[in-house]
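step 4 of 6: structure.
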Amino acid sequence: MANEEAHVRLALRNQATIDHLRTDAPKYSEWITTVAFYKALHIVEAVFFRNGGNHGTDHEDRARRLKEARYSHIWKHYRPLWAASTVARYLQDTIQRSGSFNSFAEYMPAGDVDRLILNHYLHQVQQSARNFLSTKSVTELGLTPPKPKKPSS
Amino acid sequence: MAHDRDAFVEQFGSVLGRLAQWLREHAKTFSRAFVTVRESGLLFVVLRDNAGFDPDFEDELTDLDLEIAQNPRFDHIDLNVLSLPRSSKTAYSSFLHPEYTWVFQHGK
C-alpha cells in the first residue's frame, strides 16, 4: 500500500507529464486536464494517509471524505477538476451540432486549461492540502509552507 | 434497517425538492437535469445550454454539493454533482443509469 511519500512521488511524476504535454498544449489539452486531476488525486491521497492512514477506495468515497468541513476548501477546487477531467475522459459526441460539444478544445481552450485547470484549481488544491501534509511533502511539491499557527494566549 | 429505508425515502424526496429549487434559480443556464444511480451513490447531472466550461456555474454547483453533503437533514443521501456541456442524448446518456434515472423538466 502506498504511503504519503509514495503519493507525493506519483504527484510529481504527474507534474513531469504535465510539463511534457504542455510543450504542445493545444494538441493535448484533454490529457493535461486528466493528468492534472490525477496529480490532485495523489495529493488528496497523501493528505488522507497523513491524517488517518487509510486511502479513498473510489471517487465516491474520496468525495464523501473531502466534503467534510475540514477538507471542504480542497473539495471546492478538486470537484471542478474532476468534472473537467470526466468530460475529457468520457464525453464523446459523434453528432456534430453548432453550439454543442464537439471537442474538448471547444469545451475548454488550451489557454483556459492553463488559467483554470493548472493555475487555479490544481494550484488551490495544492495550497489547501499543504496544511495537512508533512513539511517534507510540502517542500518536495514546491509549495509555500503554511503560515505557523499563532500560539493561543 | 426499515427505519434507514424510511429515512432515505423521506430525505430523497426532500433532496429532489432542493435540487428542483436550485434548477429554477439557474433556469437560464441548463437544458436538462437528472438524478441517476451510480456504483455507490447518486449523481446529479446538469446538462448545460452551451458547449463551454463555466467556472462560475461550477462554483455554484460545488456550493450546492457541499450544502447537501453537510446538511444533517440529508445524512442518508450520498450525492455527487456533475455538469456536462450541451451534447446529444446519445452522448450524455452514457452518464445515466439506463433504469434508475429521474428527469427534471424545466419549471417543475
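step 5 of 6: annotate
 - The domain at 4-91+105-138 of chain A is CATH 1.20.120 (Four Helix Bundle (Hemerythrin (Met), subunit A)).
 - Helices of chain A lie at 4-21, 29-50, 59-66, 72-90, 104-107, 110-129, 135-140.
step 6 of 6: archive
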